[in-house]
Amino acid sequence: MSPAPNAPSDSDRRAQERAIDAGLVQRVLAGDRSAFGEIYERHRRKVFKIAYGMTRTEDDALDVVQETFLKAHRNLAKFEGRSALGTWLCQIATHQAIDLSRRRKVRKAEPLNERLVGEDKPGESARGKAQANELREALDRALGELSDKHRTVFVLYTVENLAYKEIAEVLGISLGTVMSRLFYARKNLQRKLAEFQGS
Amino acid sequence: MDCAALKQIFAGDRLEDLTPAESTAFEAHLDACAACRESLAEAEGELDDLASQWAPPEGAELAWARVGRAVEAQGARGVARPSRSRAPALLAMAAGLLLAVGIGLLAVISNGQSGPNGSPNLTSQITPPVNPNPIRPPANPPSGAVTTPDEVTIEAGEGYEAVAELLDGGVVCVTVRPVG
């Protein structure tokens, strides 16, 4: 999952995605009302995952998704295309989520349940599945105990496999700060998981 | 920044954000030092293992439905365009009509003979033509519309004349103007 900006296939894929998004943006600005729906479908799940990672509840995450796309639509004419559309949406979502989290103050995360946790892995036994779910739940809980700034970089890195430079652009921080926050988050999450597994 | 400082960052021991000067030095050192890039690759491996274990939820479809509706409604509004409401045009026409009639004069119209082609006999008298298909005033006229009865009495005072023009749809445009 590590960013591989020099991998041709990854670069080609990103370039293709950007071209599709650029075309959709032009269609929206030209008055094609169905084009924005396509943008929504292409990016809503990614935006939701980022929002959930930062707000810690499904309802708040959906609120963030809604506000993100409404705001994106209102400001689409200002999108200059210097970054990928997905990165721009991530930026909006991140700020929306941070604002919402601050308004909500302290909020306990919803416990993960079978419905929400990721899809079944083929060949996974029932016991293995239960252990994996417990681990995901522990990791999710540990993520909630990180500070906002450390949690944000980890979520951006994990959800969309954003490169360090893209994360830096979304958050308006330096490359070095992205890495310092990311690896600090990693260390703390590993420590909390070790505590969980030890218990 | 030296290798020790970068190793501290990759180990996750740096809590504070980098200053702008430190950020510049960090990037410059990383570009130049193969050993530090190797340390970074090792740290990324551990990070990827951890990241692969976190699976955010997909979200319930019922909840997605209301988000989808809100986004769809916003998207359906399209790009903002100037209003194309007919009300302003109707208001302008009504204002012009009232202004022409109300140049301060009142005229009495007696029934007169229609001129050629059904047009009113125009001097100082105005006789609205007989319309075989009278237009009924709408029950709920749009804002700005002016409705009039079939007979209109307008009296042009001394030195003024009233001119009527029959428009399509039975609309009569009346203009009161000084003679000559």
Structure keywords:
heterodimer; A: 199 residues; mainly alpha; 8 helices; 0% strand; B: 180 residues; two-stranded antiparallel sheet; 5 helices; 2 strands; 8% strand
Question: Describe it for me?
Answer:
The complex is a heterodimer of chains A (199) and B (180). Chain A has 199 residues and is mainly α. Chain A is 73% helix and 0% strand. Chain A has eight helices and no strands. In chain A, helix 2 crosses helix 6 and helix 7 packs across helix 8. Chain A starts with 7 loop residues before the first helix and ends with a helix. Chain B has 180 residues and is mostly helical. About 14% of the residues of chain B have low confidence. At the A-B interface, helix 2, helix 3, helix 5, helix 6 and helix 8 of A face helix 2, helix 3 and helix 4 of B.
Describe the secondary structure blueprint for this structure:
The complex is a heterodimer of chains A (199) and B (180).
Chain A: H1 8-29, H2 33-55, H3 58-74, H4 85-104, H5 126-144, H6 148-160, H7 164-171, H8 175-198
Chain B: H1 3-10, H2 20-32, H3 34-51, H4 61-76, H5 87-101, E1 160-166, E2 172-178
Antiparallel strand pairs in B: 1-2
Could you provide a short overview of the structure?
The complex is a heterodimer of chains A (199) and B (180). Chain A has 199 residues and is mainly alpha-helical.
What's the order of the H and E elements of chain A? HHHHHHHH
Q: What composes the largest sheet of chain B?
A: 2 strands, antiparallel
What is the number of helical segments of chain B per DSSP (H or I, 4+ residues)?
5
Q: Mean pLDDT score of chain B, rounded?
A: 69
CA distance, first residue to last residue of chain B:
94 Å
Structural class of chain A: mainly alpha
Spans of chain A of at least 5 consecutive residues whose pLDDT stays below 50 are: 112-118
User: Can you count the beta strands of chain A?
Assistant: 0
Q: How much helix is in the residues of chain B?
A: 25-40%
Radius of gyration computed on alpha carbons of chain A: 18 Å
Please provide the count of β strands of chain B: 2
- Which H/E pattern describes the elements of chain B? HHHHHEE
